[in-house]
Amino acid sequence: MNKDQVKGVAEKAKGKVNEVIGRATGDTKQEVKGDVQQAIGEVQKKYGDAKEAIKKQAKKAH
């Protein structure tokens, strides 16, 4: 697991917390912030996944 994958998962987790707190307190702004954080985290994780896949393919080629 590379740093982008770790950061992505962490950002998704923070986003989920913000979403749940926002929903529980009726704070739409915080809920939306959580949704955005989750989306950003997912993109970062997928970027990390792609880097790992490329790295594995490069190792297979050699």
TrEMBL record:
Cite the CsbD-like domain residue spans from the record. 4-56
SUPFAM superfamilies to which the protein is assigned, alphabetical: Hypothetical protein YjbJ
Instruction: Enumerate the InterPro entries for this protein.
Output: CsbD, YjbJ_sf
Family per record: Belongs to the UPF0337 (CsbD) family.
- Listed name of the protein: CsbD family protein
Q: Name the source organism.
A: Paraburkholderia tagetis
